[in-house]
């Protein structure tokens, strides 16, 4: 059976009776995310009403409320953080921890006032957006490169004399190998990897 929304094989059933639909993995994931967002909106409205009741009563913490939700561990679809913006149909499912840590590092080193660090912040942002949005990379290779960028981003935020420069340079060089020589991403890598590597290059001597 085909998905009701696209041509992939159906895996899930949603709705009931006449409204029943069959969805593939990807479409079911989007459906679930929308349902979750609606539910969260309802909970926020309920909590607002509960707070208004407490306000009227002049007693606080007496009306039950929905607990705050933990932030999701995966992202799907377009992603927009402080610096990093990923859009297009190829984003797939991304780890929020990884992307979030890179985004934080971009903020930190991007505002350090050090020109080399600000360049590296620009490079980290561009590389993350290009890799996450790539249609050519497999999910496995995408995750591998994003994990490397996460590692490098974290290392970039420590003081220069404490950075593990040798390991970082070897790791950065490995990105090109993972991506593969034939991939269109090589153009972006050629532009930005040197800016990132510069952060870990020691003066000769
Ligand atoms: Zn589908």
Annotation keywords:
single chain; 205 residues; mainly alpha; 2 domains; two-stranded antiparallel ribbon; two-stranded antiparallel sheet; 6 strands; flat; binds zinc ion
How would you characterize the overall build of this protein?
The protein is mainly α and 205 residues long. It has two domains: 1-69, no CATH class; 74-200, no CATH class. The chain has helices spanning 25-57, 96-110, 115-132, 139-156, 165-179, 186-197, and strands at residues 12-14, 21-23, 74-76, 79-80, 85-86, 93-95. The strands form three sheets. It has a two-stranded antiparallel sheet. The protein has a two-stranded antiparallel ribbon with strand order 3-6. Strands 4-5 form a two-stranded antiparallel sheet. Helix 2 runs antiparallel to helix 3 (115-132) and helix 5 runs antiparallel to helix 6. The radius of gyration is 22 Å and the shape is flat. The mean pLDDT is 89. Bound molecules: zinc ion (ZN). Zinc ion binds at residues 3, 5-6, 8, 23-24, 26-27.
